[in-house]
C-alpha cells in the first residue's frame, strides 16, 4: 500500500514537472517569435534601403542575398531569445521550488 502511495506521488510530481517544462518552452517560443518579428523588421528596412541607394549593394546583393540577410537575423534572434527565456523561467521556477522545500 505504501508503495502505491509513493508511486502515485512520484507520478504526480512527474506530471507537474512535465507541465512546468511545457509552460517554460511555450513562453520561450512566444518570446522568440516576438523577437524574430522585431529583428525581421529591423533588418529588412536597412537592407532594402541600402539595395536601392548604395551602388555596391545594388550590384552585388540579389534577392536571395537580401532574403538570407534578413532571415539569418530573424533566426538568430529567435533562438537567442527563446533560449534565454527558457533558462530564465526554469531558473525562476527552480528557486521557487527550493523556497517551497525549505518552508
UniProtKB/TrEMBL annotation:
<feature type="transmembrane region" description="Helical">
    <location>
        <begin position="63"/>
        <end position="81"/>
    </location>
</feature>
<dbReference type="InterPro" id="IPR005050">
    <property type="entry name" value="Enod93"/>
</dbReference>
<feature type="transmembrane region" description="Helical">
    <location>
        <begin position="31"/>
        <end position="51"/>
    </location>
</feature>
<protein>
    <recommendedName>
        <fullName>Early nodulin-93-like</fullName>
    </recommendedName>
</protein>
<dbReference type="Pfam" id="PF03386">
    <property type="entry name" value="ENOD93"/>
</dbReference>
<keyword id="KW-0812">Transmembrane</keyword>
<keyword id="KW-1133">Transmembrane helix</keyword>
<keyword id="KW-0472">Membrane</keyword>
Amino acid at each position: 500500500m505504501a508503495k502505491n502511495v509513493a508511486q502515485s506521488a512520484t507520478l504526480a510530481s512527474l506530471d507537474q514537472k512535465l507541465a512546468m517544462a511545457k509552460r517554460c518552452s511555450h513562453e520561450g517560443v512566444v518570446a522568440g517569435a516576438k523577437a524574430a518579428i522585431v529583428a525581421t523588421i529591423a533588418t529588412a528596412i536597412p537592407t532594402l534601403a541600402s539595395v536601392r541607394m548604395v551602388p555596391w549593394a545594388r550590384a552585388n546583393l540579389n534577392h536571395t542575398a537580401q532574403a538570407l540577410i534578413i532571415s539569418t537575423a530573424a533566426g538568430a534572434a529567435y533562438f537567442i531569445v527563446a533560449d534565454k527565456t527558457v533558462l530564465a523561467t526554469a531558473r525562476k521556477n527552480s528557486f521557487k521550488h527550493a523556497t517551497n522545500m525549505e518552508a
